[in-house]
Amino acid sequence: MHRMDLMPKRLENSMSVLLNSWLPMAGTSRRKSLPKLKAHSRNGDATLQNVAQAELPTRNGRFTIYGFKGTGPQDEAVALVRGKLNGKTAPLVRVHSQCLTGDVLASLRCDCRAQLELSLKKIGQAPSGILLYLPQEGRGIGLMNKLRAYELQDGGMDTVEANQKLGFAADAREYDFSAQVLKQLGAKKIRLLSNNPEKVRQLEEAGIEVVERVPCQPRVHKISASYLRTKKKKMGHLLDRV
Predict the structure, then answer these.
(1) What is the pTM of this model?
(2) What would the mean pLDDT of 23-51 be, rounded to a whole number?
(3) What is the rounded distance in angstroms from the CA atom of residue 57 to the CA atom of residue 65?
(4) Is the alpha carbon torsion for 223, 224, 225, 230 positive or negative?
(5) Please, what sign has the CA dihedral across residues 36, 38, 40, 44?
(6) 131 with 141: CB under 8 angstroms?
(7) Beta-carbon neighbour count of residue 183 at 10 Å?
(8) Which residues are annotated as catalytic?
(9) What is the DSSP letter of 58?
């Protein structure tokens, strides 16, 4: 079930009103429309659509925020773009999976928020860069299932064992759609902020040239240390500080 199906209708409507209030007024926007892109995915041809585009000033500099949507239930992404993507130089890119508990609620069970903040800081300092934000909560299992996994972890399982106990892979994320968005933005050659070799492999298989893997290792908190050790030992993440 798509996680939006679990959202109360009143909350969904409120979020829609809030989102619409941020969209530029007709006739005052400097928005440049992007063409639809026909691209190959594991499920066949998919149409990639640029849904919205707006300016986004942040503590880490001014970005342009894009909304992209495909045809699949998980084919959505938000892209924060800084600098010129001219294809001549490789932008610094972070492909970040949504984590409500970490990114928004500041949970210390994981390092997601710390990685997100570090990535935005580094991209803000780079000549050009992209932060791609994906709805792949819980490494692709969805928010409710992630909370079930948390409950199992409280009973003694690690993050991999909990996902597998629920019938999921240790990491169920896919990056074909991410590659489509990067190509649409003109970033076919990138420097990737990541500790995950599998993410590098999937992006390269999808036609993105990763010219450099840039480590994304914020300071390790003692609460999240065991989680990171599990990712290093069982998932092959390249982590030097645990």
Answers:
(1) 0.80
(2) 50
(3) 10
(4) positive
(5) positive
(6) no
(7) 16
(8) 171, 173
(9) E
